[in-house]
Design goal:
single chain
């Protein structure tokens, strides 16, 4: 047997996160939907380590009268995006470039978060790339307390309610498909 030791892919600067208000098919978002005027790239607003989509799968016990041992069964999976943090300008004008995440992700806003990993974050979306798609509703925008850390920025912390409809490894379709 051949032992494979994969190189892996460096992570720094290789994640693009975009909010879009609507998708026709979340399993095959189109280039038009991901690059249209209503698509907002929020990756450069997000604080590293504070963007962490997670999944938790419940488990149960399978106990039988005839067995001295119990087994485990898999239950429902709960997806969440909690305590996401992003920078904002508390005195910024509405729709200003430095406040697009803050202005777009208002409480009650519904849409989709697209998370592409691998290609450089500033690379355009391309057909056949894989992305994770989360259908979300935005929670309240909470101001993060000011820190004494050098270089700290004003930040918002926000939880997103994630629909059970999550598409992992969705494939981007060519525009107009």
């Amino acid at each position: 047997m051949t032992v494979v030791f994969p190189d892996g892919v460096f992570t720094a600067g290789r994640e693009r996160v975009t909010f879009v208000p609507a998708l026709t098919d979340m399993n095959n978002p189109t280039l038009t939907e991901l690059s249209g005027a209503s698509a907002i790239d929020i990756g450069c607003y997000l604080i590293k380590g504070q963007w962490n989509p997670t999944a938790d799968q419940a488990t149960g016990t399978d106990e039988r009268v005839c067995s001295a041992q119990a087994g485990t069964v898999l239950g429902q999976t709960t997806y969440s995006i909690e305590n996401m943090q992003y920078v904002y300008d508390p005195q910024g004008a509405e729709a200003a470039a430095n406040n697009l995440a803050y202005d777009t992700l208002k409480e009650g806003t519904k849409g989709y978060i697209i998370d592409r990993r691998g290609p450089l974050s500033d690379a355009a979306y391309a057909a056949a790339q894989k992305v994770d798609v989360y259908q979300v509703e935005c929670g309240v925008q909470v101001r993060v307390p000011i820190s004494t850390d050098a270089g700290d920025k004003f930040k918002i912390q926000q939880t997103l309610a994630v629909s059970p409809n999550v598409a992992q490894d969705a494939v981007i379709a060519a525009a107009g498909v």
